[in-house]
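pls read this stuff:
=====
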Amino acid sequence: MTDRVISSKITLSDRTVNKQGSDTMVRSDIIRGHLDSIILRLIFERDRYGYEISKEISLRTDNRFQVKEATLYAVFQRLEKKEFIQSYLGNVSQGAKRKYYKITKLGKAYLTEMIDEWIETKRIIDIFSDAR
């Protein structure tokens, strides 16, 4: 039975999802397809650095979704290559300059499309979620 877990904390490839009493597992491929958009949404709010983004994701999801550092930086590389974000060095903090990320016009346009897609996807899922 691979779709259910008994423990309260499971690791899904490079993400950890805390279930907090639930035995329903969120498959990693569902979240993976939206991670770029989640990170873009946070950078859209304001320029951010990697650790800050990781902590904000954990905070907003009540630690139900956490992104490992390696995954986060792979997403940054992918988003920069697509020219959705740009990086720059900020002020020195705790002995080193932090690398900040800001969203580009192209990134904002992509994010708008993804938010529209999220809304429509949620509508469709909501149609079938009352089937219990």
Remarks:
- Residues 9-126 form a domain with the Arc Repressor Mutant, subunit A fold (CATH 1.10.10.10).
- The chain has a mean pLDDT of 81.
- The chain has one domain: 9-126.
